[in-house]
Design brief:
Blueprint: E1 7-12, H1 19-33, E2 43-46, H2 49-58, H3 63-77, H4 94-104, E3 117-123, E4 128-133, H5 152-159, E5 169-171, E6 174-178, H6 180-183, H7 187-196, E7 205-210, E8 214-215, H8 234-256, E9 260-263, E10 266-267, H9 278-298
Parallel strand pairs: 1-2, 1-7, 2-3, 7-9, 8-10
Antiparallel strand pairs: 3-4, 3-6, 5-6
Helix pairs in contact: 1-3, 1-9, 2-5, 3-4
Length: 305
């Protein structure tokens, strides 16, 4: 690809079951434009539930299949243990998530994936960020391909290992947790990758960023502000994820200006393991696609539109 070509990026937020919104919006794109998502973008980046969708996209899996995954498999993923001591065990067994990923995502080594892919995670032993990449980059760029033998499924499981919800994932002697801890919205890291590794200029980049919902009802004034009574325990994690997503979107907008399209619906406060709003999320995605269809067309590869 020549340096003068427009470089199209798809960035997909984390958000647990709220990934239904992302999957349905992408399914609408595939239906309307008659193409697979992986042919529309030069780089796809995903975090947590966004990593599942990104992994499916580079595997040429139809997005309607991923919508069905959210409809049929999330009750299995988020089925609570029949016994649990909250202070000692994660909320859900990781085996359930692993079974679903194995059922729907191929066991492809990252080094055999030709579409540029970024999956975020967090190395919790050394408090470092970690990015899984498919087979791109080289000695003449700022990165050298790593994790080439790591299975796509394992990269996704590491990115989905949300603290307290799932246990960390061990990959290549690294103890990895959810990428949401630092990159719930991977827009900024994807833009940085395009500028540095792919040597693009900001004016050459077009990025479509899809969120999983921005709550307009997170906190209200109250007397007690303890960890449980005020900050709400798990709610605080959702709040930090939302702030990071907004900050990433703000920086990406400053970098790319009009070449950054962020689609992120306003929602009530739905936790990442909520199962009751899937139909609502689908409807929101269908509505938002109709509202943004013209804009979206300008943010995907013209060769596939």
């Amino acid at each position: 690809m020549g340096n003068t070509d427009t470089f199209h990026i798809l960035a997909l937020d984390g958000g647990g079951t709220r990934g239904m919104y992302t999957a349905q919006l992408l399914a609408e794109i595939e239906r309307a434009f008659g193409t697979r998502i992986k042919t529309c973008f030069d780089l796809i980046a995903g975090t947590s539930t966004g990593a599942i969708i990104a992994g499916a996209a580079v595997s040429d899996i139809p997005m309607t299949d991923i919508v069905e995954l959210f409809e049929t498999e999330t009750p299995h993923i988020f089925r609570k243990r029949w016994y649990r001591i909250p202070l000692f065990l994660s909320k859900y067994p990781s085996e359930q998530l692993a079974q679903v990923i194995a059922k729907h995502i191929p066991a492809t080594p990252l080094g055999e994936i030709p579409t540029p892919l970024m999956i975020t995670s967090s190395e919790i032993a050394k408090s470092e960020v970690h990015i899984f990449r498919s087979n791109y980059g080289g000695h003449d760029s700022e990165i050298v391909p790593k994790n080439k033998k790591v299975c796509l499924r394992d990269a996704i499981l590491a990115s989905c290992a949300a603290p307290t919800f799932f246990a960390p994932k061990s990959v290549d002697n690294l103890l990895l947790a959810d990428g949401c801890l630092w990159a719930n919205n991977p827009s900024t890291i994807a833009a940085t990758e395009a500028l540095s590794v792919f040597r693009k200029e900001a004016r050459e980049i077009r990025m479509l960023s899809i969120g999983t919902g921005h709550s307009t009802n997170m906190y209200r004034q109250r007397r007690g502000w303890g960890f449980i009574t005020g900050w709400g325990g798990a709610k605080l994690t959702s709040y930090v994820m939302t702030l990071q997503a907004q900050a990433s979107a703000y920086i990406a907008k400053l970098l790319l200006k009009g070449n950054y399209l962020r689609i992120n619906p306003e929602i009530d406060r739905w936790e990442i393991d909520a199962l009751t709003q899937l139909d609502t999320l689908k409807s929101l995605a269908e509505h938002d696609f109709e509202r943004h269809a013209t804009e979206i067309r300008t943010f995907i590869s013209e060769a596939s539109a």
